Amino acid sequence: MQHHTTQALVEYWNAIRGDRPAPRRSEIEPRDIKRLLPYVFILERQDHWSFRFRLAGTGLCNAYGTEFRRQNMLGLWQDECHTNMTHLLNDVTGSAAAGVLEYTAETGEGRQVSFEMVLLPLAQDNGALTRIIGAAVPLENPAWLGDQMLTRQWIDRIQLIDPEQMPKSTAAALAPRIARQVPPRIHAGIPSLAARRQRLNAERPYLRLIKSEVPNTGTVPGKVFES
Q: Which of 39, 112, 149, 221 is deepest in the core (most CB within 10 A)?
């Protein structure tokens, strides 16, 4: 993981879950991660093909120029990227794995920006893994971001992480560092943001899939498949 926001969310989630496959949704305390919230979202798994946004942070919505609430995450991808995201989201909820991906989003005018996204399972009180908490953060902050809608996106790299191999910490120990996080600020330059809902098209699908056990900011050992 490259961005401090995604790293902090993964560490917080891992600390809260303890020795369980995933923490419960009710255990996530928003004030503990308030600095991360602009780019945090929660998905609800309705079936194999539907993972709807229950909420999405204002920073993420401003970056895209659209409101994500109630949209299907899988509707943001097409073709090969749609297939790969379907597998990834079902791996996260099916096997309590942590998903990390890098992707590129593009405006209608051809301007591009890179994002990093993490996907982490959340459990119901009965133990069922039906929710995902995640974050998607731009890896750079160009001046035009937020003034133009992002209309297409494609996956560059996917990593599936075994949480059992993650180093452990405590939420209390992480709190001071998370409180110091300063997420990028995106200017909401597009009017009527809540009314603008446009499907994104992955017109240039490219995937590099890495399965690993230990998160690493450098080269991760594992099996690599390229398309």
A: 39
Local mean pLDDT, 10-residue blocks, the chain (227 residues): 90 92 93 93 96 96 92 94 96 95 95 97 93 96 91 94 78 60 60 46 42 42 30
Residues paired with 201 in a beta bridge: 152
Closest CA to 10 of 177, 224, 207, 145: 177
Q: What are the boundaries of each domain within the chain? A: 4-215
Domain 4-215 has CATH 3.30.450.20: yes
- What is the structure's pLDDT at 174? 61
In order of 85, 152, 153, the CA distances from 199 in angstroms are 15, 8, 10
The answer to whether the CB of 131 falls within 8 A of the CB of 57 is: no
Rounded CA separation 13/65 (Å): 28
Region at 127 (left for phi over 0; alpha for psi -120 to 50; beta for the rest): left
For tokens 């079902």, what's the residue? 90
Query: Is there a contact between 119 and 85 (Cβ–Cβ < 8 Å)?
Result: no
Torsion angle of the four alpha carbons 48, 42, 17, 99, in this order, in degrees rounded to the nearest 10: 60
Contacts of 32 (CB under 8 A, 6+ apart): 12, 171, 175, 178
Asked whether 69 and 55 are in contact (CB, 8 A), the reply is yes
